[in-house]
Design brief:
two-stranded parallel ribbon, 4-stranded parallel beta sheet, globular, 382 residues
Length: 382
């Protein structure tokens, strides 16, 4: 029965019988919805439903603020739910501890409370950085992703891997922290340039190679419509990518087992982003090139039949993504990329895992790829 002062809580915990150790058992379930909606009206309706009356802050980058934020902040303000809004500078260089600390200072200034919600509105940089800030502020406050780029809708906004970059390595500082919801508005994709669309398609090709031959066939058959971001092809793609990623992440949401096919293309891709100083090469472009490197290593080892290797590389090329060092926005030296990979190996306690394709839907996680193999692949891909 409740006391006049509030809820009465009663415990009677015995003293431990084992003085050598105390066993701790903690479980956590993170369930949330991914909404893929055709227009802003329905996206705003979904946002208000997910907030369920809670107050919120809105954090876009400065480009997205001009394009997409006005309607969202106005709707929240009209209902008395908007605590405040701020914007970070667009671009990978904002995915940093400096930006994260600035946002934490701002959240403290506007008195964000534990039940209030942080809304990340933007591409991969925004959802990664804001998600990390939400995980750290007050030991974790709810956040909600509204991804506005194709890459964020099909990959970065889903799965709860949040992080900022460091000069030593990409995503070096971060957490596993799931969003309260993901609301993808397909209308937002109309403002993307072709390069951003291609970057997003790279992450979908990755999922197709590792887990869905049917999706790979779909991308091949609809490449032109996908590059134009045309409906209904892009609608199907965003739905499919979200469903596939959540299925794969659900098996191991906290990466207890680091042998994950979702890292296909990312080992070399992250090294490229690091040595080009996070900016000139988009994440999807780096991942695309990283996939081609992995295909080349797999071909040299005889793991993948030439027809499948050629098919993967041909699709990446058809989508306008880089398949050679010289096609990257900033061309790194072979030695620089190898040095960055060796640094990653050091950070990962001596392990450098490559996801190598065997056939569509099947991969091998190789921990024995040598410096010489990578260097040879990079040279061949010049």
């Amino acid at each position: 029965m409740d006391s006049p002062a509030g809820y009465r809580i009663h415990d009677n915990i015995p003293l431990p019988g084992n003085l050598d150790q105390v066993d701790v058992h903690v479980t956590r379930d993170d369930d949330y919805r991914i909404h893929v909606l055709p227009d802003v009206d329905r996206a705003v309706d979904a946002l208000l439903t997910e907030l369920d009356g809670r107050r919120a802050v809105v954090i876009p980058d400065d480009v997205v603020a001009d394009l997409h934020e006005g309607r969202i902040s106005a709707e929240l303000a009209a209902r008395g739910q908007l605590i405040g809004r701020t914007a970070i500078r667009a671009g990978e260089k904002s995915k940093s501890l400096t930006t994260a600390f600035e946002l934490i200072d701002w959240l403290a200034e506007v008195d964000l409370a534990r039940r209030d919600v942080v809304i990340a509105l933007g591409g991969g940089v925004v959802v990664d950085t804001v998600g990390f800030v939400a995980s750290a502020y007050m030991r974790g406050v709810p956040y909600l992703n509204m991804p506005t780029t194709l890459l964020a809708q099909v990959d970065a906004g889903i799965g709860g891997k949040v992080a900022v970059d460091h000069s030593e390595a990409k995503n070096l500082v971060g957490a596993f922290y799931q969003p309260k919801a993901v609301i993808s508005c397909l209308e937002h994709l109309r403002t993307l340039d072709t390069r951003q669309i291609r970057s997003g398609l790279a992450e979908v090709v990755k999922k197709a190679v590792i887990a869905s031959p049917e999706l790979f066939d779909y991308i091949e058959a609809n490449a032109d419509d996908l590059l134009a971001c045309a409906s209904p092809a892009i609608d199907v793609l965003v739905h499919a990518a979200g469903a596939i990623k959540t299925k794969l992440v659900g098996r191991d949401p906290y990466e207890i087992d680091l042998r994950r096919p979702l890292n296909f293309g990312h080992t070399t891709g992250h090294a490229v982003e690091t040595v080009t100083n996070y900016g000139p090469v988009l994440h999807g472009e780096a991942v695309a090139f990283g996939m081609v490197v992995a295909v080349d290593v797999a071909r040299a080892r005889g793991l993948v039949v030439p027809e499948v290797a050629d098919r993967i590389t041909a699709l990446i090329r058809r989508l306008g993504l880089p398949v050679a060092l010289e096609e990257l926005g900033a061309v790194p030296g072979v030695d620089d990329v190898v040095a960055a990979l060796l640094k990653i190996r050091q950070i990962r306690d001596g392990s450098l895992r490559f996801v190598l394709p065997v056939e569509l839907g099947a991969t091998v996680i190789a921990e024995d790829v040598t410096e010489d193999e990578v260097r040879a692949a990079l040279v061949r891909l010049r």
